[in-house]
Amino acid sequence: MTTLPSELVETIIYDAWHSEMPSSVRMSFMTSCSRVNQMWKAVYAPIASRDIYITNVAYIYYLCDIAQFQKSIIYHDFIPRLTLSITCFVDLRKNAQDRYAKEVSKILMQLPNYVGFKALFRDIRYISCEFIWSGSGQRPHLRVLHGLPIHVICRRYLSESHHAACRARMDVDISITNPDLSSSLYYDNQSEAFTHALNEVDITAYSFSPLLPHTQKIVSDALWFHQTWYKSELPGDLEFINWRLWMASKRPHPGAWVEPPSFDSSNIHWSRIKMAYGPVLSPEIRTAELIFIETIRRF
């Protein structure tokens, strides 16, 4: 079998890794690259470690295991040593069904603080959540958005310190592409168009506030919107994410900032962790997320 030059393999993997692929496709790509041959695995690992894409909550726990124990035969010590960016890409187009990615994006944007990420990933400036979909236009006030590509990027910056008065910067960029420059999209109340677009996929609550100052303009064939606001940092955690990240960093305990919830079997977050790490009790709970965990933990 003919072997491709390493430079070509690097280009293929880099371009594919940074493309707008649904999480299910990305998970298949991750497991496949390490199985082609040693060269593909060696090229893939630093690219995937430098720019991490989070596909579900369980994948964050997997990253913590890699960083804490440094025993991965694929990633070695690349995570967090090489990590420069962390992104959660959510494909909300009709056939993508990115439910797990959407769930983890909400958690990432609503975490009380980013103490865990800051402790483990020293070189990243922000966590980015990206969303892409086409407007449905199903309701009368949304018809102007029917079929139009909509792209949203939310960047939540890691704050410099953690105390009661600390606030984290949030940048939100939204673009709605419409080649028809005579469309009412460009002449009606533009802020309403953005609000309707976000309401359509239920990401308004944690992405932006229409009441705060913002910038909007027409760039080429797209309506573009930008807003910067600040989120108060509070002690606490969601889904044990800060706790797991901090434990993986092997730093002294930070106190209440990452204090985990009570290990109560009735706690929904703890129940989900038991599902991800405990035995599979029945076929009904073998979700795509758990199957992926079973696969990647072997590496």
Looking at the chains present, what oligomeric state does this protein adopt?
A: single chain
Question: Shape, please?
Answer: globular
Rg value: 20 Å
Biggest β-sheet: strands ordered side by side in the sheet:
1-2-3-4-5-7-6
Helical content class: 25-40%
Average predicted local confidence, pLDDT:
79
Total helices: the number is: 11
Q: How far apart are the termini?
A: 25 Å
Helix-strand pattern:
HHHEHHEHHEEEHEEHHH
Q: Which structural class do you get from the secondary structure elements?
A: alpha/beta
Unreliably modeled segments: 262-299
Strand content: 15-25%
**Based on DSSP secondary structure assignment, what is the total number of beta strands?**
7
What is the domain total for the residues? 1
Main β-sheet: number of strands, strand sense, barrel status? 7 strands, mixed
Helices and strands, with pairings:
Layout lengths: L5 H12 L5 H14 L1 H13 E3 L3 H13 L8 H4 L3 E7 L7 H12 L4 H6 L5 E9 L14 E9 L9 E11 L12 H11 L14 E5 L2 E11 L8 H9 L18 H10 L10 H9 L3
Parallel strand pairs: 1-2, 2-3
Antiparallel strand pairs: 3-4, 4-5, 5-7, 6-7
Helix pairs in contact: 1-3, 2-3, 4-9
